[in-house]
Amino acid sequence: MTEFHHPEPAVVCIGASWGGVEALKQVLSDLPGDLAAAICIVLHRAEDDERERLAQVLRRNSDLKVCEPDDKQPLHAGTAYIAPSGYHLLVDDGHVSLSADDRVRWARPSIDVLFESVAVSRGDEAIVVVLTGANDDGARGARAVHDAGGTVLVQDPDEAERREMPDATIAMTEVDAVLPLDELAQAIVRHVTGVVAG
Amino acid sequence: MSATDPGGWRDSLEDIEAGVLLEAIHRHYGFDFREYSPASMRRRLAKRREDEGLATLSQLQDLVLHDETAMERLLLDLSINVTSMFRDPGFYRAFRTHVVPLLRTYPYFRIWDAGCSTGEEAYSLAILLHEEGLLERARIYATDMNDAVLERARSGIFPLEQMKEHTANYVRAGGTAAFSDYYLARYGGALFHRYLSEQIVFARHNLVTDGAFNEFHVVICRNVMIYFDANLQARVHGLFHDSLVRRGVLALGAKENLRFTPFEDRYEDLDRTWRIYRRRT
Description:
The complex is a heterodimer. Chain A has six helices and nine strands, in the order E-H-E-H-E-E-E-E-H-E-H-E-H-E-H. Chain A is of the alpha/beta class. In chain A, the strands form two sheets. Chain A has a seven-stranded parallel sheet with strand order 3-4-2-1-7-8-9, sandwiched between helices. Chain A has a two-stranded antiparallel sheet with strand order 5-6. In chain A, helix 1 packs across helix 2, helix 3 (111-122) runs parallel beside helix 4 (139-147) and helix 4 runs parallel beside helix 5. The two termini of chain A are 18 Å apart. Chain B is of the alpha/beta class. Chain B is 42% helix and 19% strand. Chain B is built from ten helices and ten strands. Chain B has helices spanning 13-29, 38-51, 57-66, 68-79, 89-103, 120-131, 147-155, 163-172, 194-197, 230-243, and strands at 109-114, 138-144, 157-159, 183-186, 189-192, 200-204, 216-221, 244-252, 267-271, 276-279. Chain B has a seven-stranded mixed sheet. A three-stranded antiparallel sheet of chain B has the order 3-5-4. In chain B, helix 1 runs parallel beside helix 3 (57-66). The longest helix of chain B has 17 residues, at 13-29. Chain B is globular, with a radius of gyration of 20 Å. Classes of the chains: A alpha/beta, B alpha/beta. The interface between A and B is medium-sized, with 32 and 37 residues.
């Protein structure tokens, strides 16, 4: 294995499905605006013409910048990038990439696609978070992140609006922590600090 | 960034194998995927490897170099754009509002639909221009690097089960007729009327390796360049700029932005939301 410095900035990836809007609102409002990481988010939702609506909703209660990125948009710390409807969101070196490839296990955007991309691009510095949802998207991606030495955080299935997605991840791979929603932001900050400090 | 090369490829075994595979394909078959965006390319190669029942990309390399039909299957994975007719209905509404009035000022005009895949976009444009009374003045050059998808596009036959989605898009795109007027249900598919394709030239052209071949009033290239890395995107933007007439129109995918290319200053916005631009000079 060759050692290399991971590209800037640090990246946290979050996946959510059923019940995800409320869960994301809470996590994003708990995170500080000066977080030393970019946040990439996939939330399952219907494909539609609407642009930016979800970003507007999530921006309201958050100190972070929240956007729906274009292809090749640079990654900046303190900014949350929401996967646009109908596109997969992937993490490349200093920027995001979008893909209009087919759905992956019925989902586009797919959480697995996002997580697997950050597992390759950030390796042991990857941090992923699985929130509420009624399917198993994200579980395979979380395993890829764990296998690359990265960090997997999961919302406590007992308090998630739908427990299937957190359960699926816990069943698929070893996870670093299972936490209630109101403790996730703190845990994210702690892990980001660890990554940035090297 | 020591061992992260400019294209974003890694020193992992998988990425080394991917690099060797793409190099070999380029040298043997002439298709150049070396400047495709790594994140999507990894997924597409892994999918082909799995579908072929292989364990490594080195095995996939062995297969595609010695079996042309395997190369054809890989080429399909790398070139098919999942699309539907009137995908992004808002784009077609914006095209009617901002581009059609410009087209009316020309006695005759050429549109380049670059990376047309199986032809859904080219037929959508033909329908739109027909409804605006402009189809006879138009010539649509629909190009792709892959002969197999061009053949499907030329046939004018699309899967019947997709007509429901196409029809819904068509209505939302501001269509003025009944979508079913444009095709006949035949041969288990929807056969689109000949008068739509009469003004379309389907031709092979590779954006990575081929140069300019005509002068166009409109260039449409949607969700094709998202698979390219930034260097290749810049080169292809150069090709489009060279191919456009003075004050010509460039239309990109809804999430593609000239801002991240060296050509930002060469165009002005026609429709900011739907990424329709106009050459400044």
